[in-house]
Amino acid sequence: VSFDFLTGLLDTIQSSWKLSSLAAVLSKFQESVCCSHHEYCLNYSSANLYLNNLKTREDFGTFLKWCEQNELCKRLHLSDLLVSPLQRLTKYPLLLRGIWKRSNDAAEKQSVQAIIKQVDNSICDLEGKVKWLESFQKFQQIQEMIVWPPIWERNKKVFLPESLRHLLKDNMAEGLLSPVNRQLLNEGRLSLAGATKFLDVYLFLFDDLLLITKIKSAKKKPAALDASLRSPSPNPELHGLGRDGTVCSVLDQPIPLDRLVLKNIDPFHSAGCGLQNAFLIIHQNRYQQCIGIFTLQAPSEAVKKTWLSHIKTAATAYRHVIEPPQPSLRRLPVNESSEI
């Protein structure tokens, strides 16, 4: 426990000396400390990222070095001082348990035990808030990077007169990734085999669908991507693409995991096709008809196995939570005939 913490606790005790017991003082201290720590922890990531952006400025770097030389900093950098409240929060239960062990009054021990439970619940609640905030910021950045082209751009065979295109809203699919209960299980860059060349694609595997996007350089960097720098990066690779002004243009419609068939391509057949570390993603409609097929190539065998494992696990889990298929229709399991 740090000296600053004990000083703050002593100040609280002195200001609350009229309270009848130590338990009452700790209860008041718990109410004020937990609330302020919640607010601080939820804003820590944004503050830390903002600090890293400021460090690129020469004038701020000079000023920061001058401030850190102050004896009050105790040779700690600003980044160390920012993280210390987070580290201190986990020590509160240990301190309270130490007080509980040394307390002789039964009623006081019961009150301290109740405070310990409140602090533990507060920390658990904070962890839930932090996870929700990280998930929200992650999806926010993904939404800012994903571009949903209209159907006539994705499929050249689709004909729609120019005068009728206003009937289809261009942003109809932009809210697809809005639900905060959706989880991102895996993401990364792969290669999509085409008739004459390979295409750089970026895959997003969610707990209910797979989204295949094409990596595309934007003509100019969108302003939304600049705003995303204020939030934590979901993935360093994706963050790098965002900073370069690159966007992820949706290549085809999202593939629900209950309509997805996964097939591994063994090295023998891969070599015969001029591929390495390849596997197939087959998109089926509700009538078991193939409406899309994607031949993907991973940069290494390890990356390929990771994708196969994540997709298979996610598809199996999703099939367990949705309604079972109709008895008259035979659904192809995700792992049936999985080897080519």
From TrEMBL:
Coiled coil: none annotated. Gene3D superfamilies: Dbl homology (DH) domain, Pleckstrin-homology domain (PH domain)/Phosphotyrosine-binding domain (PTB). One of its GO terms (biological process) is Rho protein signal transduction. Residues 183-316 form the PH domain. InterPro entries: DBL_dom_sf (IPR035899), DH_dom (IPR000219), PH-like_dom_sf (IPR011993), PH_domain (IPR001849), PKHG5/7 (IPR040181). GO terms for molecular function: guanyl-nucleotide exchange factor activity. This is DH domain-containing protein. It holds the Pfam family RhoGEF. Residues 1-129 form the DH domain. SMART domains: PH (SM00233). It comes from Scyliorhinus torazame.
